[in-house]
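Please, structure for the following, as tokens.
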Amino acid sequence: MRVGGYNHGLRTYEDWDYMLRLAAQPLSWAHSGTVGVVHHPGGGLSGQASLKHARDELRVLRLNYEVARRHVGLPVFLAAVGRVVASRSKWAVLQWYWRKRAWIE
């Protein structure tokens, strides 16, 4: 398959990276009827800091820049980058505030 498999060099979001590449292939996939994604409570991304999420999400977007530019265009790609930065920055500031507030009280 031209898409390749999971990028094991990614710390997180390797499934999202794969799905972006897969979605760019016309008529190359179909629903199998089986569960393909499982959430593992107590581990994985849930405990990761917001800025690490941002780093990893931006890395996946950067790796898929050409695919995104060809299929959705540069403005949509830049909007996705902006969403990651805005969302993760907000949560990083809130986490800092909550830690500082807990320390003061």
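The radius of gyration is 17 Å. The mean pLDDT is 80.
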